[in-house]
Write a structure and sequence with these properties.
Shape: globular
Order of helices and strands: HHHEHEHEHEHHEHEHEHEH
Distance between the termini: 45 Å
Structural class: alpha/beta
Largest sheet: 8 strands, parallel
Strand content: 5-15%
Strand order of the largest sheet: 7-6-5-4-3-2-1-8
Number of helices: 12
Helix content: 40-55%
Radius of gyration: 19 Å
């Protein structure tokens, strides 16, 4: 199996070549996509499998605070929760990451104190992406220099929707380069499309391919700051894109649905989508994440219920 992008070398040589490739992708059958996503969401999960799914979902969460009122104390508290989500049960898995603004990266890194939890930082003028390229790159470099393990960038939806596909590609490529560290390592790059603003499934498929061709390590649905965020259908479409990309290049790309996933039932539906679309290879936090701030508490309550037989309620988990 090939493991390079050589076959797509000509695709990104010009805006017209990239447009021709993207508009040559198969059109999305919206009815079929939504029907399959809905059908997979009805799968029943037995008790033992549910316990496994809950722990897996906890381990995939990017525990997030992205508010203007964020303080160092809040970030330290969130980091403590990421390492030890349920103080009453030390078998509870740690979350995958803590996701914060760039100026809070150093605080999160210090609070985690070497724990096996990544620090993710939004960048590139999140959430709107309305800034000049040098500002976006400086935003990224600052976060990486502060210790970010992962960068969650936003594309310029205006450029994409105006058909400036090569400009979108070049932005992602430049941010990918800005993720590099002096020692030769690099922060992993998650590319946020803001699917709720892309209008069509065809646009989501095209954005997915631009992100993957430009070097994204993850493709991500949303910022969580608009009305429509992650849905089973748009996540299924992105999973199909990474599956097809790996089949053609040998390169594996992660997927991160974000925004609007609040319950254990929701999370399990997404895990079923992953298993049935791309398989067990993606069922780890290396390749699949949940962007969530409220999901963790519901997972913890359901986990406690499975363990004790009693529903503990929201008073038994911390309010973030």
């Amino acid at each position: 199996m090939p493991t390079t992008l050589t076959a797509f070398a000509d695709v990104t040589t010009s805006d017209s070549a990239l447009r021709r490739f993207l508009h040559g992708l198969p059109g999305v059958d919206a009815v079929g996509l939504e029907a399959r996503a809905a059908s997979l969401g009805t799968r029943s999960i037995k008790t033992t499998a549910k316990a496994y799914a809950i722990d897996l979902a906890i381990s995939m969460i990017d525990l997030t605070t992205l508010e203007g009122a964020d303080t160092p104390g809040k970030v330290r508290a969130l980091s403590a929760k990421a390492v030890n989500p349920d103080p009453t049960d030390r078998t509870t898995p740690m979350t995958a990451a803590v996701c914060v603004y760039p100026d809070m990266v150093a605080t999160a890194k210090a609070a985690l104190n070497g724990a096996d939890v990544k620090v993710a930082s939004v960048a590139t003028a999140f959430p709107a992406g309305r800034a000049a390229l040098p500002v976006k790159l400086a935003d990224t470099r600052d976060a990486v220099a502060a210790g970010a393990d992962e960068i969650d960038m936003v594309i310029d939806r205006g450029a994409f929707l105006a058909g400036r596909y090569l400009e979108t590609y070049e932005l992602i490529k430049a941010v990918k380069e800005a993720c590099a560290r002096p020692d030769g390592s690099a922060a992993r790059l998650k590319v946020i499309f803001e699917t709720g603003e892309l209008s069509t499934y065809d646009n989501i498929r095209r954005a997915s391919w631009i992100g993957m061709l430009a070097g994204a390590d993850f493709i991500k649905t949303s910022t969580g700051k608009v009305g429509v965020n992650a849905t089973p259908a748009n996540t299924l479409l992105m999973l199909e894109a990474v599956r097809d990309f790996k089949a053609q290049t040998g390169i594996q790309i992660g997927v991160k649905p974000a925004g609007g996933i609040r319950t254990t039932k929701d999370a399990i539906k997404f895990l079923v989508l992953v298993n049935e679309t791309v398989g067990e290879e993606w069922l780890s936090n290396t390749w699949f994440r949940f962007g969530a701030s409220s999901l963790l508490n519901d997972l913890l309550m359901q986990r406690q219920k499975l363990s004790t037989g009693r529903y503990s309620g929201p008073d038994y988990v911390t309010v973030d």
